[in-house]
Q: What sequence folds into this?
């Protein structure tokens, strides 16, 4: 990838997902705050979609807190074929991330225009091969990166990740309001860390209850999944063994499979693009 600020290989190359003929569904996975497990949700949802037989890719747009390659267990670097980057793959999911271009302990200290250019190159200089689904792991909050991606990917669907406690969902709604301000459609809410099931079989709602449904009701969208708090989910992320891949029949694995099924059963309203029709 060319350093941000240089003339990129993508000069004159358009973003393929904005083409009216593109059939790729772009899913922006957002949150209002960090620490809600957004990246874990992105990775496991992508793996579940791949396991259902769909060509799936992930853009790790959290350029400061990049973690997707490690969570997927990817240990090889992208390859160059001509001027295009071929993204590595694990568990049926291809991925591009700032993590491939920065050291693990290196801080990415870039201003907005540099981040904007890097994200543009992730979309234009990578050989994506028309995936069925492109999941984008957004950074927390409503800053430059989210605004840039709304500009780059105007046909995206937004899914907001929150945890059950009221304080978290009040912050998460800011991501949803940002999406609406930039004309993106929020299509669902995902609640993470919903409960812990003890050895006694009882559910313990360690972070409270109801926040995800309350946010979904406020936004008038469905709560598409409640992900339980299980050690194997965290361990899988740390070890590059996503629970949706290694334990699909587990409690959490089944939730991700159900969310993937929901996405497949609920495609977005079809938009008809007629480039010859213009409003002056």
A:
């Amino acid at each position: 990838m060319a350093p941000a600020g240089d003339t990129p290989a993508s000069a004159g190359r358009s973003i393929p997902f904005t083409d009216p003929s593109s059939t790729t569904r772009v899913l922006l996975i957002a949150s209002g705050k960090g620490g809600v497990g957004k990246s874990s949700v992105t990775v496991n949802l992508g793996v579940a979609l791949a396991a259902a037989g769909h060509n799936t890719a992930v853009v790790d747009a959290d350029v400061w807190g990049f973690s997707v390659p490690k969570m997927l267990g990817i240990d090889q670097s992208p390859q160059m074929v001509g001027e295009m980057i071929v993204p590595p793959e694990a568990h049926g999911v291809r991925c591009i991330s700032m993590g491939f271009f920065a050291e693990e302990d290196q801080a990415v200290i870039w201003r907005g225009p540099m981040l904007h250019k890097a994200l543009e190159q992730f979309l234009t200089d990578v050989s994506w091969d028309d995936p069925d689904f492109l999941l984008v792991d957004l950074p927390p909050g409503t800053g430059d990166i989210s605004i840039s991606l709304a500009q780059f990917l105007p046909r995206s669907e937004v899914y907001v990740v929150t945890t059950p406690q009221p304080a978290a969902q009040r912050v998460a709604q800011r991501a949803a309001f940002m999406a609406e301000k930039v004309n993106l459609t929020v299509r669902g809410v995902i609640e993470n860390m919903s409960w812990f099931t003890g050895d006694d079989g009882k559910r313990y709602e360690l972070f409270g209850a109801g926040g995800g449904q309350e946010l979904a009701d406020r936004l008038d969208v469905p709560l598409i999944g409640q992900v339980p708090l299980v050690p194997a989910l965290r361990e899988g992320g740390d070890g590059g063994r996503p629970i949706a891949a290694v334990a699909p029949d587990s409690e959490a694995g089944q939730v991700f499979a159900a969310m993937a099924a929901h996405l497949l059963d609920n495609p977005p309203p079809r938009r008809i693009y007629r480039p010859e029709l213009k409003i002056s």
